[in-house]
């Protein structure tokens, strides 16, 4: 290590950044509405880029409108350590999801510059576009990792039917330039992301840091049960082909399916149900619903993807229904790099904070970046396990601890000219 002075986080600067950025996209209900490629999202990107420039970083935006700030190293040709997350939000969001990782990364680079420390390898701070899924999710990191195609540009649309290409054009962007955002993996040494846990584990165990070892995979299906719409008063119960009863039966089957075919990290959720015709006095003839299934093991995910249709088929047969399903997305689980995980754990020990190793039950940009370079993640607690809500929060002492661990990890990964992540 060639660090002669010790950089330190300024929680006051980080607090001020959080306060300012949280004012962009806030509406009367107290939530943030900084969805991807809206005016608020673009204003947030402008604000962040200005902050990067004030910090002395070289700034740019790639074809996916990822905002990038580069801290040049002593060896500018060396593969870069990439840090970051996203600043776009779901509707009515809190102020930390994604944003804390970006602003903590910015504060780490400010601290290093203030201490006069120049890394051996370049460090790049990236705020990825549309992580939250307005147009499918992970768009910015997928573009960065070379995982999008012309089909992505042409077909991606939000729930309101607005096409990604049209929305980007409205913001003065050329959507086809996103295909040129791909980075050569040879230019990337590793990726480090700080994020709120979005769950209750760290809070319940009264720990300050989660050292992430694995990130869950997930698949999302759109499922339809088709029956027969009929009069609610004149159709005897035994003679009904009630599509909603198929959904109800399946919901009760989910715990058994997970017990028999899943593992301790398995999750399954029916988050949306739509009944057709949707009349109070009509037996539903069609029920469309979503299912979100997650696990840190690809093998377990495949087992669940095999067992779920068997259950749907049995229910349909029993209820006199038909069923079909479409795969909306499949994101592979990833293991974090063991060398990076050990480095984050050592950083936590150096900072004297309480921590545990754990898996992430949510998907993150790190998951996509794992396709092109080694990755690691740092979690800080979410009070009450809340996220995607105006009530989402993390205490400033835990925020400071997380940023401090990130800073010490950056020093390990970017200032050691003997470390090779390729």
What does this structure look like?
The chain has helices at 11-21, 39-55, 99-114, 139-144, 150-155, 164-170, 201-205, 243-261, 298-319, 338-351, 365-369, 396-414, and strands at residues 58-61, 67-71, 80-86, 123-128, 188-196, 209-215, 217-226, 230-231, 267-269, 273-276, 282-283, 286-295, 322-331, 334-335, 355-360, 375-380. The two termini are 19 Å apart. It is 35% helix and 22% strand. The strands form 3 sheets. Strands 1, 2, 3, 4, 5, 6, 14, 15 and 16 form a 9-stranded mixed β-sheet that branches. The chain folds into 2 domains: 11-215 and 334-414, Zn peptidases (Aminopeptidase), CATH 3.40.630.10; 217-331, Alpha-Beta Plaits (2-Layer Sandwich), CATH 3.30.70.360. The chain is α+β, with helices and mostly antiparallel strands. Belongs to the peptidase M20 family. GO terms for molecular function: hydrolase activity.
Q: How many domains comprise the coordinates?
A: 2
* CATH 2nd-level architecture of the largest domain: 3-Layer(aba) Sandwich
**Looking at this structure, what is the CATH superfamily of the largest domain?**
Zn peptidases
Q: Structural class, judged by helices and strands?
A: alpha+beta
Domain Peptidase M20 dimerisation: 217-316
GO molecular function: hydrolase activity
Protein name: Zn-dependent hydrolase
Keywords: Hydrolase
